[in-house]
Design a protein that fits this description.
PGBD-like_sf; about 65% helix; mainly alpha; Peptidoglycan-bd-like; about 220 residues; Muramoyl-pentapeptide Carboxypeptidase, domain 1
């Protein structure tokens, strides 16, 4: 009997240890760090953008770890909708949006340089008549890259509130849909997505997927 109790206690301790170690690895290991999948121009004409980008990434990663360590909130995959979680998620999305904004600048510059542009050309492209196309590229790239990071999350559901929804709403408005642009995925936005999907012979379920984005960003 004594040996059985010792065995059971050993198993319990083992499971607790595995759980603690898994959580530690989850938020302190490499997998918890934000990593860009884009090709960045590390010789960008404005070096402060590069510095600010890496600082923004570090602040984002630190915020993820801090929220988990101090409040047990996983801002990347929230498990509840308490006000504290919503506030943390909103702040996380702000930080992520800043990372993406700077990342898109550096990615766009890298794309131009592949076509033979130099730093002066890139600067002119950003500051002249090409600004509209440049901003469109930033917005499109943000939607594509963000969706790819988590297709299930960014297929969207009622109540989602983030920068991805905000950019999606802007695109829908450009297509003629009269909806608010506030970053909140409510009924009216879902209905617009469904109408857009129906117009392009897609499943009108009001959810975002790669095909819907492909048509939206044409």
């Amino acid at each position: 009997m004594k040996q059985l109790i010792i065995l059971l206690l050993s198993i319990i301790v083992l499971f607790i240890g595995i759980h603690v170690y898994t959580n530690y690895q989850r938020f302190h290991g490499v997998k918890s760090e934000y990593k860009t999948q884009a090709t960045l121009d590390l010789n960008y004409y404005d070096t402060s953008v590069i510095t600010n980008y890496y600082r923004a990434v570090e602040e984002l990663n630190s915020y993820v770890r801090m929220q988990w360590a101090e409040n047990s909130i996983d801002v990347r995959l929230p498990q509840n909708d308490t006000q504290e979680t919503k506030d943390a998620l909103l702040e996380y999305n702000k930080k992520l949006a800043e990372v993406k904004r700077l990342e898109n600048k550096l990615s766009f510059s890298a794309q131009l340089k592949k076509q033979g542009f130099n730093n002066q050309d890139v600067q002119v492209c950003e500051q002249t008549g090409s600004t509209i196309k440049y901003n469109d590229w930033l917005s499109n790239n943000f939607l594509i890259q963000t969706y790819r990071t988590n297709p299930e999350k960014y297929s969207l559901k009622i109540g989602d509130y983030n920068s991805f929804v905000y950019e999606l709403q802007k695109k829908l408005v450009q297509k003629g849909y009269k909806i608010p642009v506030d970053g909140l995925y409510r009924d009216i936005t879902q209905k617009a997505v469904g109408q857009f999907e129906l117009k392009h012979n897609l499943l009108p379920d009001g959810k975002v997927d790669s095909m819907m984005l492909a048509y939206l960003l044409k």
